[in-house]
Amino acid sequence: MITPILICGCSCIDRGLQPRSTFQEANAFFNEGKYEASLSKYEQIIAKHPAVADRVLFEMGIIYAHPRNEQKDYQKSLECFQKVVRDYPDSEYRRTVR
After folding, report:
1. How many CB atoms lie within 10 A of CB 15?
2. What is the value of pTM for the model shown?
């Protein structure tokens, strides 16, 4: 279920600001099970393109908690999701629960 989110998410993004190829590289690493490499690519995107940080943090949160990630870190995953909620109130990756 998580893989389709990442596949669609990374390939469907087109805000004109982010390097599509870097998102594709991060997604490819994820699909190959190279989670640390994928996280590294996402960190590069945040550093160069802060306008898409909400999306990147969401993706990183998924990777940190992915069941096949042997280095999974639920605390880091939670921190990524909390940062989206706290710092990006208008983000489409933030769901408001009523």
Report:
1. 10
2. 0.77
